[in-house]
Amino acid sequence: MFATFLVPDPPLLGICLPGIYQPIIDILYSYLLRSPIYTASTFETWWTVLVYAIIEGSYVYRFLKNPQLRLVNHGRNADTFKPIPTLQYPKDRLREGLTYITPLLILDFTLIKKFGGVNVRDMALSGNYEPSSMRKTIRGTFLAPTLHNFTLSSPVQSWRALPPLPPTSRELIIQLLASLLIYDTLFFFFHLALHHPKLSRIHSHHHSHHEINPQVTNQLDVVERLGLVLLANFSLNIIGSHVLTRTVFVAMFVWLLVDIHSGLDLPWSYDKILPKGLASGSRRHSLHHQIGTKYYEPFFNWWDDALEYYRAAKRNHVNKALTASRSP
Fold first, then answer.
1. pTM (2 decimals)?
2. Residues 67, 83 contacting (CB under 8 angstroms)
3. Confidence band (pLDDT; 50, 70, 90) for 3?
4. pLDDT, tens digit, for every residue of 6-62?
């Protein structure tokens, strides 16, 4: 047990001693800055699709090959395992992919990208604006979206202006953690609203399955999918996250989303890595899909716990009031 205290924690090292990882970050970011793929306006959309395909595919493989790990088979003997639900082949999910990609590509080709650490002049030039007019037309904040200056020579927003310098490992890790916490909070309230009777039709498609499985992750209405993407972007932008933080965020974000929808109880899932009771995990999210009236938070537990505490206190108050009204 003593040996475990001698193993350094990578995120903690990155925060306390950023110089340790800085050479790796510098080399990586220097390479990315020179890459036309990374500077393309559509990079994040295609990066998300690629990461999702790899992560979801790996979880689907485990789901099919490890029936004993499926949550519905816990406590069952091998001869009583439930049959595997019908899953879609990649070729059958083309429409789903196009539904996801199309609105994002429209935004990629029409809006100027605004990242932390990028000056307004570079943003304006990426959007085909003349330097002489940029002060009147461009604001550096993401809260003020700016359309590309469409011309025959520049018909779409094709590239994005990036920060000239990489983040420190401390900045990257803190921004990553902060954006996940912000998203977790925002999505809790968004998700809670989607379960309101007036909005439940939007969210019902996500719950229309016999058994939760990795493919349910992206089984979303267009409105819900767009809301998820916009909330994730807001969570990153509101704290001025570096573009490299965004790249790492996508991979971690997708992994967490697929993991909670996997329908699997894996020994290395994030809720097993973090201190007990801190993270929600696949088991708790599976209960949400079964019950639908609790466990709305995607990654952590505190907002769900606060809601349960509030509901319990409200029930106790009502019960006391009823008891008092019946007493002589």
1. 0.90
2. no
3. very low
4. 445 666 666 676 778 899 999 999 999 999 999 999 999 999 999 999 999 999 999
